[in-house]
Structure formats: C-alpha cells, structure tokens
Amino acid sequence: MMKGAMRRAKKVRQGDKTRRDRDGGREKKIEEKQEEAEMKERRNEEQRRDEERGEKIQENETKRQDKTRQGQERQGQTNMEKKNDEETR
C-alpha cells in the first residue's frame, strides 16, 4: 500500500510540474507576442519617419533645382545683355 500511495504522490507532483511548465510556457508566449508587437510598432514608426524625411528631402531637392534654374536663367539673361552691349558698341 505504501508503494501505491507513493506512486500516486509522485504522479501528482509530476502533474504539478507539467502544469507549472505549461503556465510558464503560456507566459513566455504572451511575452514574445508583446515583444513582437512592440518591434512592429517601432518598425512602423521608423518607416513613417523615413517617409517624412524622404518627402522633406524631395522638397529640398526641388527647391534647390528651382534655385539653380533661376540662377541659370539669370546668368543666361546677363550673358545675353553682355552680348547685346558688345554688339551695340
């Protein structure tokens, strides 16, 4: 009889261990899912920032191009004026 009682006690203890393991596994899975969600949020934020930066960079480039065009046009006008002045002299 003692052997049977000891076996049952051992099984109960083992059962408790497996329950603990299962609960711990659940907690780990929950933590992993939370970490994954946080990583996704970070990636999304970084992408948004990069997109905003990209738009700003494009705006700056267009402004720069406009300025260079204006500068070239002005320079072209001054060159034309110089040619006209030389021709009139």
Count of helical segments? 1
Poorly predicted runs of 5 or more residues: none
What is the multimeric organization of the chains shown? single chain
Tell me how many strands there are. 0
Rg over C-alpha atoms, rounded to the nearest angstrom: 38 Å
Q: What would you call the structural class?
A: mainly alpha
Helix content: over 70%
* Cα-to-Cα separation, first versus last residue: 130 Å
Specify the overall morphology. Answer: rod-shaped
Strand content is under 5%
Order of helices and strands: H
Sheet having the most strands: none
What integer is the average pLDDT?
78
Biased composition (Basic and acidic residues): 13-72, 80-89
Region (Disordered): 1-89
Biased composition (Basic residues): 1-12
Task: Describe the protein's architecture and organization.
This protein has 89 residues and is mostly helical. It is 98% helix and 0% strand. It has one helix and no strands. The longest helix is centred in the middle third of the chain and has 87 residues, at 2-88. The chain starts with a helix and ends with a helix. The model has no long low-confidence stretch (mean pLDDT 78). Residues 13-72, 80-89 have a biased composition (Basic and acidic residues). Residues 1-89 are annotated as: Disordered. Residues 1-12 have a biased composition (Basic residues).
Quickly list its features.
89 residues, mainly alpha, 98% helix
Topology:
Elements (H helix, E strand, L loop, with lengths): L1 H87 L1
Quickly describe the structure:
With 89 residues, the protein is mostly helical.
